[in-house]
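Before the break, one more example. Copy the sequence into your notebook; we will annotate it together after we see the structure.
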Amino acid sequence: MNDGLSVCLLVDGPIIARWQAAALSELFDETDALLSMVVYNEYNPERSASDLFRRFIELREWSVAAVLFRFITPTPEQLDPVELGETLDLDGVTEQRVHPDIIDGWKQRIPESTVDSIADKSDIAVRFGFGFLIGTVLEELEYGVLSYHHGDIREYRGQPMGFWEFIHGQIEAGITVQILSEDLDAGSVAALKRVRINDFYTWQSVRSHLYEESHDMLRLAVENIESDDVMSPESLGEIYTHPKGKPVIKYVFKNGVGIFREWIQS
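Here is what the structure looks like once it is written out:
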């Protein structure tokens, strides 16, 4: 008999990223956790060309820098698409598709009927989709909803992942698996890791390293929950968002030099 936690997986579709697949594989291969349910997000906002252009203008110089480096730096292999069914045995697993309620234009709330089904079948959920979750799904499960934040929430909250640590010249960056609350990156910490990033010369390399170091964190989070070793941070870091102005200029210069250094060493 399986005495481990029953897990509901929240995803945006049947395709997940390679790093997420690795984290799930380690969780289910190395613990007694059992996949009980998969909930697929059917919300797919369609953005018109004018919406995309408006967003491009809103992000200003960051948009230009992002497009520039997208062409000259590789996408991290950890973001390669993987079929969920290739990673997990879905035989006997309840699968459900749901359209969340959209609150304030960007928050997502899973309907009560689906929350009831999740809570009936699962002790805990893992969020690999659904955007910023609010509502009773965060309260009804015995152990809540786990979510990654690629940063130490005591120092860096928000986005982009690893960017501000890179720009600030930090030696280390954090990886947090938190039990979600309705506040941004402010949940209880189920697992926390600090990894060195000062040996990487580009933001893209920092991101790839953070993804690579994430594989064991979901397993550690579940083990910590089972042993009642969950931390409530005494303080929370500043909330960051997409950069504008001088930080973007610094990024273009630092990343450009980093690309040259990586090319020299390759």
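Residues 171 and 199 are 8 Å apart (CA to CA). The two ends are 51 Å apart (CA to CA). Try to locate both features in your own notes.
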